[in-house]
């Protein structure tokens, strides 16, 4: 999130989505820390929505006015804590996603020098290094055949 003032500039879609996640995190944080502020935050959200429905020009995009008024209502301390929690959640999700997507890496020994050629720069003719090789699993033939047969039977039937 970035510091914003009330203006008519339209924020990016990513900023709007992140803002709604931050507001959700903020409400959960306030439940634990200061539940008396929750009705005020909800009232700000309702007021912003009402002004948008009335056609107020500064409320065409709700993200900027909502962020501005919520920050003013709850204070920078709670807002910054919600941003810290949001950043931690984002890092955790990125880490989990990276682990789930990354294919396993195998290591293979590859000779770096010709073992049949004694070169003066190398003291040993069997110098090797490890090179990462990315493993991409091949689809199971039986699974592909079963999917093809199921598709063919659904087209016929």
Structure summarized in a few sentences:
The chain is mainly alpha-helical and 157 residues long.
Termini Cα gap: 54 Å
Listing every helix as H and every strand as E from the N terminus to the C terminus, the arrangement reads HHHHEEH
Low-confidence stretches: 4-8
Secondary structure category: mainly alpha
- Give the helix level as a range of percent: 55-70%
Count every helix, treating DSSP H or I runs of 4 or more residues as helices.
Answer: 5
Shape type: elongated
Q: Radius of gyration, rounded? A: 29 Å
| Averaged pLDDT | 76
Query: What is the number of E strands?
Result: 2
Strand order of the largest sheet: 1-2
Biggest sheet descriptor? 2 strands, antiparallel
Strand content: 5-15%
Characterization of the model:
Helices cover 58% and strands 9% of the residues. The chain is mainly α and 157 residues long. A two-stranded antiparallel sheet has the order 1-2. Helix 1 (13-33) packs across helix 4, helix 2 packs antiparallel against helix 3 and helix 3 (63-74) crosses helix 4. It starts with 12 loop residues before the first helix and ends with a helix.
């Amino acid at each position: 999130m970035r510091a914003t003032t009330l203006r008519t500039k339209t924020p990016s879609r990513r900023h709007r989505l992140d803002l709604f996640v931050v507001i959700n995190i903020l409400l959960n944080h306030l439940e634990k820390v200061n539940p008396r502020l929750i009705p005020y935050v909800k009232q700000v959200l309702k007021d912003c929505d009402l002004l948008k429905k009335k056609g107020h020009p500064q409320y065409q995009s709700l993200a900027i006015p909502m962020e501005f008024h919520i920050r003013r209502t709850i204070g920078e301390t709670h807002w910054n804590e919600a941003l810290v929690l949001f950043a931690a959640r984002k890092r955790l999700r990125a880490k989990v996603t990276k682990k789930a997507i990354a294919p396993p890496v195998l290591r293979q020994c590859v000779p770096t020098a010709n073992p049949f050629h004694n070169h003066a720069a190398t003291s040993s003719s069997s110098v090797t290094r490890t090179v990462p090789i990315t493993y991409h699993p091949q689809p199971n033939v039986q699974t592909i055949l079963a999917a093809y047969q199921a598709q063919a039977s659904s087209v016929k039937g």
